[in-house]
Structure formats: C-alpha cells, structure tokens
C-alpha cells in the first residue's frame, strides 16, 4: 500500500478507510462477501498487463501461452465444480456474462440462412440490406424473465437496460398473495408469448426455483432455458441446491457472477451445453474485447477453493444462518416476505413500520450494519425509496458466525428499525439523502454490539 501512497495518497487513504469500514460494520449485503487473500493476490499482479483477445489457443495476440494455461485451468475447474459441459470464464461481470449469453443464444438459435457457411472472416461481405435484415431478425426475438419488482435483475429486461432494447421483453411475477413463483401461471404466459429465451434467476427472491419445472415449460414452447445463478452459485457449488433445484442439468445456458456466494473475484462466468460452445467462444468479438487475465487467475483460485469439502460446509451454513436471522427478525415483530428463506437472503417489509427502505438502510448504516434497501413485489414506493430491506448472510458466514450470532444481529436490526422516526415526507425532500431521526443511545449501543 505504501507503493500506492507514493503515487496517490488519496487512493491509499480510501483503501485503508474501506478496510476500516468493512471491519467496523456488519456486512449483510446479500451480493457481497470476503474473498480470500489467495484470490486477492492472484488478481492484483502483472497479469493485468497482458492482452489475450480470443479464446485459449486461438488468440488475436502473440505471447498468450500463460494466459491460455490460466484460462483453460479456470474453465476446467468451473466444469468440474458445477458438472457443466462448457465454461467461459472471460466475462468481466455478471452483466457481461448475461450479454454474452444473450448473443450466443441469438447467434445459435436465430436462423440467418445467408450467413451459413460464410465463416467469421466473411461476415463483412454481406450486403447492407442483408445486414439490416439480420439486425431486425435478432432484435425482434422475445425474452421472458422475472420482473424486477419480483426480484429479477436489471439485465433481465428492465426497461432502462440494454437487454430491453435487444429483445421484445415480457416478464413474469411472483404471486401477489404468497410472494412465491407460480409455475402454472408462468407456463400459461410462456404458451402465449412463445419466447426465444425463458430466463430464470434473481437478485432478490428468497426461495428456491424448481428448474426441472422451468425446463419443462421451456421445452413445451420451444424456448432456450437460461438461468442466471449470480446470487446462488455458491449454493449450487456447495451442493445445497440439488436435484430439481440445481440449474446445471436443466438449463441450456447458465450465467453467474463469481463474487457473491461463490466468494471469488468480481467477475462473471457462463456455463453451457456444448451446442452453445462455438458461439460463446466468440465472446470476442460478439460483446467483449480483451479478457482480464488477472481476474481469470483469481477465478481459478476461487473455483479451486469451492471444490474443497470446507466450501460445502460453508454453503450449508450460509442458508442456516439466513434462516436463523430471518426467524430472529420475525420473532421480534418484523415482517419477512414469504415468511422466511430457502437461500442466502431474505426481505423485510419496513413499510409496515411506517418508514421507507431508504430510511432504514441509512439508519442501519449509521448504527454499524451495512445492508441494502430493496423493492418488494408490487412495491408502491418504487425502486429508489422502496418498502423493503434485503439481508444476506454470505459475508458474515465467511467470518465464522453461526446461529447464535444471527440472533444477536436480529436484535440489533429490530431495535434500530423500531426506533427510526421518519421525517415526513421523505419524498418531498428529494433524492439526495434519507430523512429520519434515530436516538443517539440506540446508535452507540448498536455500534458497540457490532464491534464486539
Ligand atoms: N445477475 C444477477 C441476478 C445479479 O444479481 C447481478 C448483480 O447484482 C448481476 C447479474 C450483475 O452482476 P454485475 O454487477 O457483476 O454486473
């Protein structure tokens, strides 16, 4: 760090401040974790200096032997860990992984007769009129994914995301009464819409998904089943999601991030059936430029770590902790969406306490607890203010915490939420800062408990 400080003390100070912040706050953001030192060291080094566009042994640059070995090893570990036929470890993020998967599915499934046999080097030879037709055909395909307010991700067709411009987008939602997915309704919708892609996966859904059933629906309407397991990849890797709850045997294409429950570096990954391998190998030039060799090395380290028996125990404990924490909050009078959780996260309806998610998020951060506000299904407060909190246990489980600590954390969360006094009307005060009051006594006692 002193090396960094010699160049820019500001950045060195921010890194130290972030270390301090992460050590003095409870990290309950469902999409965050603590990666190992081995992961961080594999990522922070000279590999960042190498270009390697293309895929292993098929590069547009010279001198890629070492990156070939790194990428091939990471992909092999990924296939072994998940039991996948093919892995691409290049995406820089979960959003990139989805973009790569979308284009690979479009390229594989949408018939463009005059392109057949042309080969990649002859793509430039098609006429302007053919190019226009190609773009129209690709742009008119249908995507059916989980609605943003039901826990779907922005990249699953949210209006302001590029996915909504690439596809003719439709969405399915959770049942309004139960907050749970209803497969018969999804099937009915799919039969009407006949999408090219049926997309399953979430950022904020506290239950398991039956991927066997989703595949049956996809097969019935001739759709490709794509699963985005960004949030729960660690639970799949650790064997918690088995049988029909494991997406790998059922989905044609699976995407994920590597930094959430999987506990690796910030990045993405695509797993697929062999049928999609050729198109995915063309991630560059489809949507990518050069891969990040240092991050692929760190992904290999994380995947190897996830192959260990300890990781299985870790994955199980994440879920046990989430269930204990949800039960602790419920016991103290907080409303848990769907009444509990099957995975690493759960949602609290704080609107029931007369506050917005944003007020609760800010007050809890002041009190030493870092988590994020989240829209709830059919949320009247929208995606900025929100009615909910999303709470996840991957990071605190990495710290070695168990059910007893979860009960203590539930006590902190409940006492803060109960004591937030909203200053009305928050929405009239504009988007800059949440408006509320929290007693100094609550603040200091919560901070003290967090440090302990
Ligand atoms: N997919 C899902 C389900 C996610 O929850 C996220 C991130 O939260 C992403 C994709 C995007 O990942 P990234 O932030 O790495 O682009």
TrEMBL record:
<dbReference type="Pfam" id="PF00464">
    <property type="entry name" value="SHMT"/>
</dbReference>
<dbReference type="InterPro" id="IPR019798">
    <property type="entry name" value="Ser_HO-MeTrfase_PLP_BS"/>
</dbReference>
<feature type="modified residue" description="N6-(pyridoxal phosphate)lysine">
    <location>
        <position position="260"/>
    </location>
</feature>
<feature type="site" description="Plays an important role in substrate specificity">
    <location>
        <position position="259"/>
    </location>
</feature>
<keyword id="KW-0028">Amino-acid biosynthesis</keyword>
<feature type="domain" description="Serine hydroxymethyltransferase-like">
    <location>
        <begin position="141"/>
        <end position="413"/>
    </location>
</feature>
<dbReference type="InterPro" id="IPR015421">
    <property type="entry name" value="PyrdxlP-dep_Trfase_major"/>
</dbReference>
<keyword id="KW-0663">Pyridoxal phosphate</keyword>
<dbReference type="InterPro" id="IPR039429">
    <property type="entry name" value="SHMT-like_dom"/>
</dbReference>
<dbReference type="GO" id="GO:0004372">
    <property type="term" value="F:glycine hydroxymethyltransferase activity"/>
</dbReference>
<comment type="function">
    <text>Catalyzes the reversible interconversion of serine and glycine with tetrahydrofolate (THF) serving as the one-carbon carrier. This reaction serves as the major source of one-carbon groups required for the biosynthesis of purines, thymidylate, methionine, and other important biomolecules. Also exhibits THF-independent aldolase activity toward beta-hydroxyamino acids, producing glycine and aldehydes, via a retro-aldol mechanism.</text>
</comment>
<keyword id="KW-0963">Cytoplasm</keyword>
<dbReference type="InterPro" id="IPR049943">
    <property type="entry name" value="Ser_HO-MeTrfase-like"/>
</dbReference>
<keyword id="KW-0808">Transferase</keyword>
<dbReference type="InterPro" id="IPR015422">
    <property type="entry name" value="PyrdxlP-dep_Trfase_small"/>
</dbReference>
<feature type="binding site">
    <location>
        <begin position="152"/>
        <end position="154"/>
    </location>
    <ligand>
        <name>(6S)-5,6,7,8-tetrahydrofolate</name>
    </ligand>
</feature>
<dbReference type="InterPro" id="IPR001085">
    <property type="entry name" value="Ser_HO-MeTrfase"/>
</dbReference>
<keyword id="KW-0554">One-carbon metabolism</keyword>
<dbReference type="InterPro" id="IPR015424">
    <property type="entry name" value="PyrdxlP-dep_Trfase"/>
</dbReference>
<comment type="subunit">
    <text>Homodimer.</text>
</comment>
<comment type="similarity">
    <text>Belongs to the SHMT family.</text>
</comment>
<dbReference type="GO" id="GO:0030170">
    <property type="term" value="F:pyridoxal phosphate binding"/>
</dbReference>
<dbReference type="GO" id="GO:0019264">
    <property type="term" value="P:glycine biosynthetic process from serine"/>
</dbReference>
<feature type="domain" description="Serine hydroxymethyltransferase-like">
    <location>
        <begin position="6"/>
        <end position="109"/>
    </location>
</feature>
<protein>
    <recommendedName>
        <fullName>Serine hydroxymethyltransferase</fullName>
        <ecNumber>2.1.2.1</ecNumber>
    </recommendedName>
</protein>
<comment type="pathway">
    <text>Amino-acid biosynthesis; glycine biosynthesis; glycine from L-serine: step 1/1.</text>
</comment>
<comment type="pathway">
    <text>One-carbon metabolism; tetrahydrofolate interconversion.</text>
</comment>
<dbReference type="GO" id="GO:0005829">
    <property type="term" value="C:cytosol"/>
</dbReference>
<dbReference type="GO" id="GO:0035999">
    <property type="term" value="P:tetrahydrofolate interconversion"/>
</dbReference>
